[in-house]
Design a protein that fits this description.
- The protein has 558 residues and is mainly beta.
- The chain folds into five domains: 37-140, Sandwich (Immunoglobulin-like), CATH 2.60.40; 148-265, Immunoglobulins (Immunoglobulin-like, Sandwich); 276-367, Immunoglobulin-like (Sandwich); 372-463, Immunoglobulin-like (Sandwich); 469-557, Immunoglobulin-like (Sandwich).
- Helix content is 8%, strand content 41%.
- The strands form 13 sheets. Strands 2, 4, 5, 7, 8 and 9 form a six-stranded mixed beta sheet that branches. Strands 11, 13, 14, 16, 17 and 18 form a six-stranded mixed beta sheet that branches.
- The longest helix is centred in the N-terminal third of the chain and has 26 residues, at 2-27.
- 30% of the residues are buried.
- One of its GO terms (cellular component) is outer membrane.
């Protein structure tokens, strides 16, 4: 009985499955997708174009085409969904398209899209005359076109006036066509000037602004004209340009305008009567009179100073006062300023000559721990260590050297290197310069004591005596009876002499003649000079050995 019931139940269950299956089959409709020409939505819809990676892909798009049967596709871009003015980005036979950062940015630049502004850009693909759907990218482009100076033009001239020092002398304005009101980054505009025709080789930055206009006073512009190589009371032409600088996560991007050339006439800059150095080396004591520069009377001041590493200093025109102090222009290394200046910094310990030139409103720092001679006498061998000068560290260097007639030489701070070489000024005889120098010339053959004085930026060539005599109070200043020194070697003489404490004397190269007599330097203790000399004073009473060494330019009384 139970078996019979189970069989009946299984029969009904089977019939139920059959009816259900039939009902499902009657209602199931299997369809395939309609043929379509579809541009696929990208996974990323925001495109930031990185100028530092111009060859990287800016975007890649792909599409399906089951309709047109085309073998060539045109990719178009527009700034509106109607594609009123479509821009062709490229063509392809594939069903995908990639464009580099540089190429896409250039295409965007043909529109009125502003840089650093998130802008909607629409794209579609066209097969023949059949367009696909469009997709949307939010794009931020970088600028390519440089600023354009709109005022003044090349006809502008200005005569700068001391009487109107604080008033505006020049206003520059420019247009930056790629930057809009909604641009989301700050643009720094740097204005540069340079002597016309120099291709901005020594450009001076005259100011920075985030606006598209810049003004400068008579006084400030006058200083920059002088610093750029202009002469007072002479009309000179100067080139001006504007740099647009952006600092972003991608790095620094600079665009430079075309130049304008204008005529400017500067007035003479006031040159101080004196100049003093003040800094870490003297505890920032602005009342230290020992820190006075040498004034050559032509606007150039020089001073030799020993510095420690990382020392800083500046200059003051009046000892004991910080008023009108001078320092370095932060925007133009090597130039001096009175307002907005920074301290001048020393990076390496050593002895230096500091030169301040008010004719060019500039300064130079040159290391002078050592000095070497190089010239015709040694075959211009700049690595000849025997050519080293003697010095006591006071900025004066001396060396004995034999020259042929018409020999030439110059000076090197580092043996084996031509860098930073010194020679004679082309315009001022016996003056030392590092830039635009000429060789030092020896007219007459002979053996000379060559003296280089970096304190005064001068040199001298004095023929070394072959004999030497002492004349002074010990022999009643009778030059005919002056006792002779013993010549130890070339340029080195000694004499044993009885002295009393009040004795004074000097040295003669020829007995019986006062010509070319030598004595003690008034500026440098223990050194000998031939002009404007002092008598040598006795150190006391007794018998002393007097030594005169023309190799070192010194005398000793021991």
């Amino acid at each position: 009985m139970n078996l019979y019931i189970k069989k009946i139940s299984f029969l009904f269950l089977s019939l139920a499955f059959i009816f259900t299956a039939c009902e499902t089959e009657d209602n199931l409709i299997i369809t395939s997708a309609d043929p379509a020409f579809v541009l696929q939505e990208p996974g990323i819809s925001t495109v930031f174009l990185n100028f530092a990676l111009p060859n990287n892909p800016a975007f890649t798009i792909s599409w399906n085409d089951d309709v047109t049967g085309s073998t060539s596709y045109t990719v178009e871009m527009a700034t509106d969904t109607d594609f009123t003015t479509p821009i062709v980005l490229g063509t392809t036979e594939a069903k995908n398209f990639t464009m580099s950062v540089a190429d896409f940015n250039q295409s965007l630049n043909t529109t009125d899209i502003k840089s650093y502004t998130s802008t909607a850009v629409y794209m579609r693909v066209v097969a023949g005359s059949v367009p696909s759907n469009f997709i949307l990218f939010q794009v931020s482009k970088f600028p390519i076109t440089a600023p354009i100076i709109t005022s003044p033009d090349n006809s502008f001239t200005a005569i700068l006036q001391d009487a109107t020092a604080g008033e505006t002398a020049l206003t520059l304005t420019w247009n930056d066509p790629e930057i809009g009101d909604n641009s989301n980054i700050t643009i720094d505009y740097e204005v540069e000037m340079a002597l016309a025709g120099t291709d901005f080789a020594s450009a001076i930055a005259i100011g920075t602004t985030t606006e598209t206009t810049f003004s400068i006073s008579h006084e400030a512009l006058n200083d920059l004209v002088i610093a750029s190589g202009g002469a007072a009371d002479v009309a000179s032409s100067f080139d001006f340009r504007v740099k647009a600088i952006v600092n972003s996560a991608a790095g620094e991007l600079t665009r430079t305008s075309d130049k304008i050339t204008i005529s400017l006439t500067a007035y003479k800059v006031a040159i101080p009567d004196n100049l003093y150095m003040v800094g870490q080396h003297n505890g920032w004591n602005n009342g230290d009179p020992t820190q006075q520069f040498y004034n050559n009377g032509s606007g150039i001041f020089s001073r030799v100073q020993a510095f420690s590493v990382n020392d800083e200093f500046k200059m003051i025109p009046v000892s004991g006062s910080w008023d009108n102090d001078y320092g370095e222009d932060p925007a133009n290394p090597g130039k001096i300023l009175q307002d907005g200046e920074q301290n001048i910094k020393i990076t390496e310990a050593g002895n230096y000559v500091v030169i301040v030139n008010f004719n060019t409103l500039s300064f130079k720092i040159a290391k002078i721990d050592n000095l070497y001679m190089v010239g015709a006498h040694n075959g211009w061998n700049n690595a000849d260590a025997t050519q080293k000068f003697n010095t006591t560290g006071n900025g004066v260097f001396t060396k004995l050297q034999a020259f042929d007639a018409d020999a030439e030489f110059k000076l090197l701070p580092v043996s084996g290197s031509w860098d930073g070489d010194w020679g004679e000024s082309k315009t001022t005889a016996n003056s030392l310069v590092q830039d635009d120098e000429q060789n030092i010339k020896v007219a007459t053959a002979g053996t000379y004591m060559v003296t280089i004085d970096f304190n005064t930026l001068t040199y001298s060539l004095l023929e070394v005596p072959q004999n030497l005599y002492l004349v002074g109070s010990p022999n009643g200043w009778n030059n005919a009876t002056a006792p002779a020194f013993t010549k130890v070697s070339e340029g080195l003489f000694t004499l044993s002499q009885a002295l009393v404490a009040t004795d004074e004397f000097k040295f003669l190269p020829v007995q019986g003649s006062w010509d070319n007599d030598w004595g003690a330097s008034k500026k440098y203790n223990g050194m000998i000079v031939r002009d404007d000399e002092n008598n040598v004073a006795s150190p006391g009473t007794g018998t002393y050995t007097i030594t005169v060494d023309f190799n070192k330019g010194t005398y000793t009384v021991n």
